[in-house]
Amino acid sequence: MDNASIPVSKRVLIVDDDPDVHTFLAVALRDLDCHIESASDGLEALPKIEAQDWDVVVTDVMMPRMNGMELLEKVRRLRPQLPVVVMTVDSTADKIVTAIRDHAFAWLQKPFTRESVADLVKVAVAD
């Protein structure tokens, strides 16, 4: 079989300090044929983003060491075309405006459904 005919999985990096969120997102995305990796905060995610190509990053805002907004800012400098989905329980207008201004692909307010996150990631990784 020719390697060119084998579909390539989309690469998704989940960044959140809550292991339950990682499990929830992995279940939500399992039907999308995605390769999923995890990081517990921005400091752990940053070397992965620098070293590998990703189709989308899904990050929480409130995390220790480096939060999601700081990570978003660094991703914009390193890989300006990489879609970043920001998720948080805090949906204040200031946070939303900041995320949009800093070029987040989308904003997800927790709690969200499996379908909503799967649909959003599907759009983000579309060619």
Would you kindly provide a brief summary of this structure?
This protein has 127 residues and is of the alpha/beta class. The chain has helices at residues 19-29, 42-51, 68-78, 93-101, 114-125; strands at 10-15, 34-39, 56-60, 84-88, 106-109. It contains five helices and five strands.
What brief labels describe this structure?
127 residues; alpha/beta; five-stranded parallel beta sheet; 5 helices; disordered N terminus
Provide a descriptive summary of the structure in words.
The chain is an alpha/beta fold and 127 residues long. It has helices spanning 19-29, 42-51, 68-78, 93-101, 114-125, and strands spanning 10-15, 34-39, 56-60, 84-88, 106-109. It has a 5-stranded parallel β-sheet, with helices on both faces.
